[in-house]
């Protein structure tokens, strides 16, 4: 059992401001807000790395949170500051058992035995030391552990590896780099150094280190897998394929090494080669059974296998394997989320995903993206957001590849993030995603809209997409829809009249609509929107074409380039049977990137009316379905009445 730090030790004096910060953290601890206190302590010890008070306080909070890494990390730093304090080494010995650091455990227990043989805890430490010796012997395949000079360096390697895995990239990397030259087999340390760069977002440097490993050991599985992953994320697919070809014929050499199997599975997940993942996972589980690998070490393998089966179309098998993964590791969020997603209706499913968002987007990149988004929000201008994204991609070109991978393979939140970017920036892979099966119907509809908007696919053309799991023909839609009433001339003076008029017209309340429109036109004669509303009421009440023409023609004279005026001109042409002329104008006014929602509704109605006039029932159904999807199932009542839909 790990124990709290004793009261002994000589605290280094702190500045008054820092003491106040510690008191504020203490208040959080008293309130039971331990995680918030821990986060603040991390910042505190970074500012004050030689302050015993900070590390001691961090140790106590981590102990109460049952955070073994936090206890180890704080104790490790305290041992450096207070080398004569046995409690720190006791804590280090106990936590290294939980963190699977046998060589570190050997070093700490031996140090304790050598320095404090009369300690009350000595029997516990001796027992632990005797237990870890055969484990280290087996790992090193030697007879006399105490005579091996590498043990201290292997322990440091373990420390660097744990720090990297917990997100302390630079600190872990510094330790690993310091011991590489002392290890007879430095490849694992170099692989972790490579990984630390990748996790930080420096993929090119990560690849350089990985290739250095392969120069030393051309068959190193970890380095081959790392290199393949980095090359995919750098957009260098052809080079990556060369490595994948090698890996396809490779069975891991150390079949008792769970990490090795999972590294292979993880790597093939980068290209969603689900048949290979299924085959490898079956081999891995067979070996786990033979070697007696405990269930809790199998959860990642089961998750990769489940996701691969889902992509192969065997959802029942996938659910079974996710269930087993959760039985082995009940806190495995990604398995639980996948399982939950798999039982949703087809059109609402994201589809199975191998990785969480952070696998694709390093924290440093995510922070840079957050800054870009913040600037966009503050300016309230899409142009600013677009400009900032372009600037970031110019300095970090790997981001564009990452966007495409996240859209292709991401979970629901990941795809929503990328689609938010795609609303202003032409993310690669939008068309492929929109026409594929992955993602929700709504996500793929948005991708299709943005792809058309960016010119990646032709607007207003029929394409085949999946809706509720079935191949369905729809018309592409490439517009940004806005509701900025100022952009259609609604001033504060007319805001109330506009609200009354639009509510009446949209609800097909003719008398109330005519009254609101008349009052508005008294204030602002020839106002486009209210003239448009009046023409709609005329169409709704089935005014004859002569009467409608007498009103629509002057509206076009006053507003010759306005979408709403031109649209009503098309309506009259359709009613007159001049369908070719109507189509020509529809095609002309459709060449826009943005529409107010009033303009959107009019465009939908014109296409439906034209298709109906041509007796094209399929086109009518397509446009109606598309309109309902855009309006989330509800076509405005007055349009439904006019169009009889």
Question: Could you provide a short overview of the structure?
Answer:
The chain has 645 residues and is mostly helical. It contains 33 helices and 4 strands.
Any key phrases for this structure?
33 helices, two-stranded antiparallel sheet, 645 residues, single chain, two-stranded parallel sheet, mainly alpha, elongated
Strand residues, percent? under 5%
With helices defined by DSSP (H or I, 4 residues minimum), what is the helix count?
A: 33
Major sheet details: 2 strands, antiparallel
Could you say which structural class the secondary elements and strand pairing correspond to? Answer: mainly alpha
Calculate Rg over CA atoms.
33 Å
Structure description:
With 645 residues, the chain is mainly alpha-helical. Helices cover 68% and strands 3% of the residues. The protein contains 33 helices and 4 strands. A hairpin with a 2-residue loop joins β1 (462-467) and β2. α12 (221-233) packs parallel to α14 (258-269). It starts with 15 loop residues before the first helix and ends with a helix.
Secondary structure elements and their pairing?
Elements: H1 16-30, H2 34-47, H3 52-64, H4 68-81, H5 86-98, H6 102-115, H7 122-140, H8 151-165, H9 169-179, H10 187-200, H11 203-216, H12 221-233, H13 237-248, H14 258-269, H15 274-291, H16 299-311, H17 315-328, H18 333-342, H19 363-379, H20 382-395, H21 398-409, H22 412-422, H23 430-435, H24 441-453, E1 462-467, E2 470-475, E3 480-482, H25 492-506, H26 510-523, H27 528-540, H28 545-558, H29 563-575, H30 579-589, E4 594-596, H31 597-613, H32 617-630, H33 637-643
Helix pairs in contact: 1-2, 2-3, 3-4, 4-5, 5-6, 6-7, 6-8, 8-9, 8-10, 9-10, 10-11, 10-12, 11-12, 12-13, 12-14, 14-15, 14-16, 15-16, 16-17, 17-18, 19-20, 21-22, 22-24, 25-26, 25-27, 26-27, 27-28, 28-29, 29-30, 29-31, 30-31, 31-32
């Amino acid at each position: 059992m790990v124990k709290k730090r004793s009261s002994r030790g000589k605290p280094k004096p702190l500045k008054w401001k820092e003491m106040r910060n510690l008191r504020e953290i203490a208040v959080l601890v008293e309130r039971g807000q331990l995680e918030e206190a821990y986060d603040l302590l991390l910042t505190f010890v970074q500012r004050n790395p030689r302050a015993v008070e900070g590390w001691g306080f961090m140790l106590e909070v981590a102990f109460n949170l049952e955070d073994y890494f936090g206890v180890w990390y704080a104790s490790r730093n305290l041992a450096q500051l207070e080398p004569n304090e046995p409690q720190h080494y006791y804590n280090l010995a106990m936590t290294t058992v939980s963190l699977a650091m046998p060589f570190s455990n050997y070093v700490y227990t031996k140090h304790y035995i050598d320095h404090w043989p009369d300690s009350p805890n000595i029997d516990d430490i001796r027992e632990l030391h005797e237990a870890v010796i055969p484990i280290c012997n087996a790992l090193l395949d030697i007879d006399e552990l105490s005579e091996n000079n590498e043990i201290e360096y292997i322990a440091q390697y373990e420390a660097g590896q744990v720090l990297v895995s917990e997100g302390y990239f630079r600190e872990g990397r510094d330790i690993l780099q310091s011991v590489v030259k002392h290890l007879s087999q430095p490849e694992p340390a170099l692989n972790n150094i490579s990984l630390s760069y990748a996790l930080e977002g420096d993929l090119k440097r990560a690849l350089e280190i990985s290739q250095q490993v392969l120069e030393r050991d051309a068959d190193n599985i970890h380095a081959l897998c790392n290199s393949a992953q980095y090359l995919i994320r750098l957009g260098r697919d052809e080079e990556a394929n060369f490595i994948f070809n090698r890996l396809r014929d490779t069975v891991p050499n150390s079949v008792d090494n769970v990490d090795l199997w999972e590294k292979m599975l993880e790597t093939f997940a980068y290209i969603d080669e689900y048949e290979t993942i299924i085959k490898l996972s079956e081999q891995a589980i067979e070996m786990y059974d033979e070697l007696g690998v405990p269930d809790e070490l199998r959860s990642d393998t089961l998750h990769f296998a489940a996701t691969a089966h889902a992509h192969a179309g065997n959802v029942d098998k996938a659910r079974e394997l996710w269930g087993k993964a959760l039985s082995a590791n009940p806190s495995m969020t990604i398995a639980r989320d996948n399982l939950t997603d798999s039982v949703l209706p087809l059109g609402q499913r994201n589809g199975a995903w191998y990785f969480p968002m952070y696998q694709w987007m390093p924290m440093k990149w995510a922070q840079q993206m957050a800054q870009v988004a913040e600037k966009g929000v503050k300016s309230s201008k899409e142009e600013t957001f677009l400009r900032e994204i372009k600037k970031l991609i110019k300095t970090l070109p790997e981001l564009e590849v990452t966007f495409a991978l996240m859209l292709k393979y991401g979970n629901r939140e990941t795809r929503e993030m990328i689609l938010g970017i795609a609303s202003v920036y032409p993310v690669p892979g939008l068309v492929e995603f929109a026409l594929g099966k992955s993602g929700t119907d709504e996500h793929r509809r948005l991708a299709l809209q943005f792809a058309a908007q960016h010119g990646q696919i032709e607007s207003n053309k029929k394409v085949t997409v999946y809706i509720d799991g079935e191949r369905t023909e729809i018309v592409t839609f490439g517009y940004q829809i806005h509701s900025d009433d100022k952009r259609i001339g609604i001033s504060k003076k007319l805001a109330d009249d506009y609200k009354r008029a639009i509510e009446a017209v949209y609800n097909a309340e003719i008398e109330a609509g005519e009254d609101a429109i008349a009052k508005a036109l008294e204030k602002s004669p020839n106002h486009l929107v209210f003239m448009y509303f009046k023409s709609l009421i005329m169409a709704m009440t089935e005014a004859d074409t002569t009467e409608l023409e007498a009103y629509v023609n002057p509206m076009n004279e006053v507003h010759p380039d306005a979408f709403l005026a031109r649209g009503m001109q098309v309506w009259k042409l359709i009613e007159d049977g001049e369908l070719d002329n109507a189509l020509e104008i529809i095609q002309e006014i459709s060449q826009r990137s943005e529409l107010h929602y009033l303009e959107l509704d009019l465009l939908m109605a014109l296409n439906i009316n034209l298709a109906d006039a041509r007796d094209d029932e399929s086109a009518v159904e397509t446009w109606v379905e598309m309109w309902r999807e855009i309006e989330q199932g509800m076509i405005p009542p007055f349009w439904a009445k006019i169009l009889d839909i």
